[in-house]
Amino acid sequence: MSKKKKLIILLAVSGVLIGSLVGVFLFMRGKSIKPEKEGSGLSLPIFENKQKASADEEYTDEAGFSFKYPKSVKVTDSTPDDDSYYTLLTLSKSDKNILISAMDTKETKIENWMKKSTKYSDASLYGAVTLGGISAKQYSTEDVLITATIDKGVLYLIEGPKDGDFWEDTQAIVIESFAFAGTQKKTESGGSPIIYEEEEVVE
What we know:
24% of the residues lie in helices and 32% in strands. With 203 residues, it is α+β, with helices and mostly antiparallel strands. The protein has 2 domains: 35 residues; 128 residues, Protein Transport Mog1p, Chain A (3-Layer(aba) Sandwich), CATH 3.40.1000.
C-alpha cells in the first residue's frame, strides 16, 4: 500500500474519532445545563408551586358583616381611634395584606369618592361585582386591586395586591362570601336588604 493511501486512511479515521469526541462533548455539555437535576427539587414546573387560596375560615365583624378567607391568612382588627371608622381589618400573610374597611362618607356615588381620593385618583375602572347584595365596582392601579361601594352613607372598601395569583384569589373569596347581618330581612316596602340593629327595650 502506498504512503499516499495510508495517509488518506489515517486522516479519515482521525476525522471520525474527532467528530465522535466533539459529539460526546456537546451532548454532555447540553445535559449539564438542564435546569433540573436529580434530588435538586427543581424538576417541578413553576406553575405547580403557585399558592392556592381557598375559603377555609369565616370572620364575623362587629360592624355587621362576615366573610370567608384562607386559613393561611391572619385577620387583625386594625381599626384606628377615629369616629369615622366602623372597622378596619388587615388580612396578612408574609409581607403582603388586604385591607377591609367600613367608614362614614358624605359621598353617595363611589365614582365621586374615587375621583376625590388622594390615594386612588388615578385608578382605572376594572369591573363590577356584588358585595353582600350591594352593587360594587372594582378599580385598579398598577399593583393594587380595589373593590368599593357606598351604602347608606357608609363606604365599604377592600384593597389588595394585584398579583394575578393568591391575593387576587383571596379578594375574590372575600367578595363572593361577603354578607351583611340581617340581609334576608326586607323593608316593609320590599326594598333593598338592610342591616338591623338591636333596639333597647323600654319597660
